[in-house]
């Protein structure tokens, strides 16, 4: 069965909550098999075997990924693996009060594209008040999976 994997990078639960929301919504509103996973539990090899990759991530420190997403981001930076059998979209949350606004999301988006993954949607970068943007993004994503 076709699958969608919602993967989250999250330090204090905001991005995780959105990923879980996306997982529930897509389970109820698509015929795809949907799973929600911590980016800390996913390897580049795992990514290769996925069909549709949705990443929801925050940014920490000075433009750093949240700690659960650091290893996979670094592995993607150092890999030559071909992800052209996958498709992806990234929803980034952050705060525009930081100079490196949504940098972790920008990095994931660029690295997945570089690895050949096919783009499902433009990168979204949401500020503290992300609920409406997320609902709009999720609905546009869901429309691709009916
Ligand atoms: C210490 C600290 C550093 C942060 N650094 C950044 C940053 O560099 N860029 C950014 O866009 N947001 C930054 N943020 C904002 C977080 O990404 C934002 O609060 C987000 O909602 C946290 O989501 P999470 O709970 O999923 O980790 C920072 C927040 C804190 C508290």
Give a brief description.
It is built from five helices and six strands, in the order βαβαβαβαββα.
Structure description:
This protein has one domain: Flavodoxin domain (Rossmann fold, 3-Layer(aba) Sandwich). The protein is an alpha/beta fold. The protein is globular. The model has no long low-confidence stretch (mean pLDDT 97). It starts with a strand and ends with a helix. Helix 1 links the parallel strand 1 and strand 2. Strands 1, 2, 3, 4, 5 and 6 form a 6-stranded parallel beta sheet that branches. It has helices at residues 14-29, 44-48, 70-77, 103-114, 131-142; strands at residues 3-9, 33-38, 52-57, 87-93, 118-119, 124-126. Bound molecules: flavin mononucleotide (FMN). Flavin mononucleotide (FMN) binds at residues 10-16, 58-63, 66, 93-95, 98, 100-103.
Set down the secondary structure blueprint.
Elements: E1 3-9, H1 14-29, E2 33-38, H2 44-48, E3 52-57, H3 70-77, E4 87-93, H4 103-114, E5 118-119, E6 124-126, H5 131-142
Parallel strand pairs: 1-2, 1-3, 3-4, 4-5, 4-6
Bound molecules: flavin mononucleotide.
Flavin mononucleotide binds next to α1.
């Amino acid at each position: 069965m076709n699958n969608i994997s919602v993967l989250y990078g999250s330090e204090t639960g905001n991005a995780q909550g959105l990923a879980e929301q996306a997982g529930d919504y897509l389970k109820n509103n698509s015929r795809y098999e949907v799973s929600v996973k911590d980016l800390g539990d996913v390897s580049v090899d795992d990514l290769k075997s996925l069909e549709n990759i949705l990443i929801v991530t925050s940014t920490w420190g000075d433009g750093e990924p949240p700690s659960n997403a650091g290893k996979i981001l670094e592995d993607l930076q150092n890999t030559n693996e071909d992800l052209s059998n996958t498709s992806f979209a990234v929803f980034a949350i952050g705060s525009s009060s930081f100079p490196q606004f949504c940098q972790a999301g920008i990095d994931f988006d660029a690295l997945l594209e570089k690895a050949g993954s096919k783009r499902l949607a433009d990168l979204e970068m949401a500020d503290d008040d992300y609920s409406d943007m997320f609902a709009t993004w999720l609905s546009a994503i869901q429309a691709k999976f009916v």
